[in-house]
Design brief:
The chain is mainly α. It has one domain. It has five helices and no strands. The model has no long low-confidence stretch (mean pLDDT 83).
Length: 154
């Protein structure tokens, strides 16, 4: 099994388990922690590079708020699909797969940004760590593009 396939399986398994238990709480908590760390390391990198500005800081905060809006949209999409299936008489236990995939994707995006910020500060980052996170992000994107909705024709 290739490294990419293994990482794809891990992300898919994590999203599937969370979806099965209908728990978006833990992935959202991870996203929030990653957003706070990204903001902090981004501010530190800007300070070290003498590029710190309130405008940039506010843009960073707005970006994080935008992340939460994207997650909310994905939750709504999941709810609409689930409701439509129920209304159509299709019995399903539709998981919050889109919200989970979006949350995992955004978290991986934040982790990449944290490592980039730390690198700008001068913290040595193992190359394998950057590669793993990039591959996980790519796998999550691919999973989102190929995910079939319940009842969708093959």
């Amino acid at each position: 099994m290739s490294e990419l396939a293994l990482k794809g399986a891990v992300v898919t398994a994590a999203a599937s388990v969370a979806a099965y238990f209908h728990q978006l709480t833990f992935p959202l908590l991870l996203l929030i922690i990653a957003m706070v760390l990204d903001y902090g390391t981004g501010m530190a990198a800007a300070w070290v590079n003498k590029e710190l500005s309130s405008r940039t800081g506010i843009i960073g905060i707005l970006k994080k708020v935008g992340y939460m809006v994207v997650v909310a949209v994905a939750v709504i999409v999941d709810m609409v699909i689930s409701s439509a299936l129920t209304t159509a008489g299709v019995s399903t236990n539709y998981p919050d797969i889109f919200a989970l995939l979006v949350t995992f994707w955004l978290t991986l995006n934040e982790l990449i940004s944290i490592l980039e910020n730390l690198s700008e500060i001068g913290v040595p980052i193992p190359e394998f760590l950057m590669k793993v996170i990039h591959k996980l992000k790519q796998t999550t994107e691919e999973k989102g593009e190929t995910e079939k909705k319940p009842g969708e024709a093959t």
